[in-house]
Structure formats: structure tokens, C-alpha cells
Amino acid sequence: MKSTAALLTATGSEFTLAEIDIDGPAAGEVLVQIAAAGLCHTDLAARDGVLPIAFPGVVGHEGAGTVIAVGDGVTKVAPGDRVSLTFNSCGTCATCTSGRQSYCENFLALNYGGVRADGSRPLSGADGPVSGMFFGQSSFATVALANERNTVKVDSDIPFELLAPLGCGIQTGVGAVTRSLAAEKGSTIAIVGGGSVGLSAVMGAVLQECAEIIVVELTQARRELALELGATHALDPRDGDVAERIRQIVPGGVNYVVDTTGIPSVIEGLIPAVAVRAVIGLIGVPSDPTAAVGYNIIAGLTRGLTITGIIEGDSVPDDFIPELVEHYRAGRLPLDKLVKTYPFTAINTAVADQHDGLTVKPVLTFEG
Ligand SMILES: [Zn+2]
Ligand SMILES: [Zn+2]
Asked: Which of 6, 11, 139, 364 could form a disulfide with 144 if both were Cys (CB 3.0 to 4.6 A apart)?
């Protein structure tokens, strides 16, 4: 079958639209006509070589659309179903079977490997094989091949451009607070970075009824949006020591921190702002793969601190994505305030606008 895909041809390249061939669904696979696909920083990390993928390759991991065909053994979805595509997992390792599939022991191979689990390549272009199966979908394409496990059926008529980003960025931010940290009602939280994940964490903190929700963000428009979404304070880090200012708001220190920046000095700067027994959740991926955070172990011991990594908000997508859809429909998750749509053909403009801070969550739309 033919598909028009946004190809990455070399490290740091722009996206180039090209026609490629895509296999029909093998056993356990789902072929999807993509209607919308969100742009997430992880796509650009792959472009820039921070996450090694083979070139040419197709990324995109927040796809939503309609099932065209299913392979043998697929029972969860059928042709015509509206679906959201999310991260892939094996379903058989110890973390998957314990309901923590975002930490699947085979996560790297299944989401960044570029090939099917059996090593075959479902995508090919004019010059030979094309790396695919990015997050088990490679959805920057008119047609994408996913797996039953990372395909979530959504019965609601929520627009595709709002459904798409639930598959990664929104579920990561909301889930970080509601699931990974499970912040208690009345607790206090600082969220560093007001991009789509940080602002989703704000929405998660509102859902959890946190008493103080403090956002730290450089861009004024994003600080304003954070307040509109329910943050109680929005700090510009250039206005003075962030930890001190957080202590002025919450003298005992905050119970939780969510970092979306991945910048070690920023994370270290937050440690003096936390309460005893606080939990610091790390979401941001550092641009330097050897990055480390300095941490006084005795202070950490005596104050009972926890520093934890968070992947995909500890989501179990079959349960959590429909739950997020329900929150949106009930007016509790105004994710439309984060989304701006671009035609698929304008993908490079979407990338530039996100880079320049003009758009929080670009979502590409495909003509039906
Ligand atoms: Zn697994
Ligand atoms: Zn993502």
C-alpha cells in the first residue's frame, strides 16, 4: 500500500514529504488511516540523534485516525474504529505484567528500534528500506502501521486533533501528577517548564485538587496560560532565586516537583524548595546523555526525599486515554487551549513554531 510520509533523511534534517510503500498488517498489527498526529519533543530528539534512529526514517508517535485493516488475531479493534495510537510495550515482561508498561523492559527496541519485533521492515521508499515502527506507529504519514497493544479504541466523537496528543504528551503530563506521583488533595507542587507536558501536569494537579500549583516558565504567554489552566502562581526564573520564591509561597517547601526541562542545574536548584518526604519527578530528557544531578545524600536521607523518573505518566493507555477523553468532555481537561493545528504539508512550519515558543502543542491534520 502507498503512504505519504514525512521522511527524516539525515541527522538534523528537515522533514521531506515522500511517497513510500507500507506493508499490510501482519499478525497482531493494525493499519490506520491517520487523521491527526501531534508533534512531541521526542520526534525532534530522534531527528537530532539524541535517540538514535536509522535514516531515512519516519517518526511521529501521537497518531489518531481510523482503522483500515487488522492482522490475524487482532480482537481489540476492527476496520472503521476511531483509535488513538500510543507508546508500544511487549506485554510479557515483568513490568508489563505488573501494569507498569511504560517501563517495559523492551521499551527501547519496541519504540526506537525502527523495525518490527521480528526484525522485518514494513516501510520502504524509492531508495530502499525506511526506518519505521517509531513508538510502534511512525504516524507522520497518511497511513501508519501500529500494533494491537499500542492502539486504543475511542468511542467518543472527540475531534482527532484533540485525541492525537493524548497518546504521549498529554498523558505524560497529566499522568505524572495523577498516577506517577498520585499527588494528594491539598498537597503542593512545583512544575518546571510550561510546554505541553508541563501545562498538562498543571491540569493534572488541578484534577488532584492540589492547594498550590507553582509553574516556573520563561515565556510570558505560557505563564499566563498556566494561570488560566489553574496554576496558583507562575514564576519567571529570571526574577530571582526560584527556590527562595517557592519558599515564600509555601514556607515548608512543596510536596512535589515535576521537572520537564531535563536541565541538571535547574533540577538541583529546586531541591532546596521541597518539603521533607517530597518527591521530585523527572520527565525532561537531558540533551547530554551523560547528564547527572548533584545531590547531598545526607540531606536527602534526613529529609526522606525521593527522586523518580517518569515515563508516559505511568499510563495504562487502554484505561487512561478513555479516562482523559471523559475529563475533556466534562470540561475538566481543557486541552484545546494547548493545541494548534497545521496541515500535514506544513510540518516544518509546525516544528519551527514549537521551537520558537509560538505553539505549545502543534498537531498535524491530514485531509480525510
Ligand atoms: Zn514489557
Ligand atoms: Zn512524546
From this structure: 139
Instruction: Tell me the pLDDT tens digit for each residue of 285-324.
Output: 888 888 999 888 898 899 999 999 999 999 999 999 999 9
Q: How far is the CA of 170 from the centre of ligand 1 (A)?
A: 22
pLDDT tens-place string over residues 58-117: 999 999 999 999 999 999 999 999 999 999 999 999 999 999 999 999 999 999 999 998
Residue closest to 365 by CA, chosen among 337, 338, 346: 346
Q: In what order do the strands lie in the sheet with 306-309?
A: 233-235, 212-216, 188-192, 254-259, 274-282, 306-309
Pick the CATH number of 2-167+338-365 from 3.90.180.10, 3.30.360.10, 3.20.20.70, 3.10.350.10: 3.90.180.10
Residues within 5 Å of ion ligand 2 by Cβ? 40, 42, 168
Residue 300 burial by Cβ neighbours in a 10 Å radius (0-12, 13-18, 19+) = middle
40 CA → ligand 1 middle, Å: 23
What's the gap in Å between 100 CA and the centre of ligand 1? 8
Calculate how far, in angstroms, residue 333's C-alpha sits from the geometric centre of ligand 2.
19
Closest ligand relative to 87 C-alpha:
2
Q: Which residue has the cell 515535576?
A: 258
Distance 110 CA to ligand 1 centre (A): 9
**CATH 3.40.50.720 matches 170-311:** yes
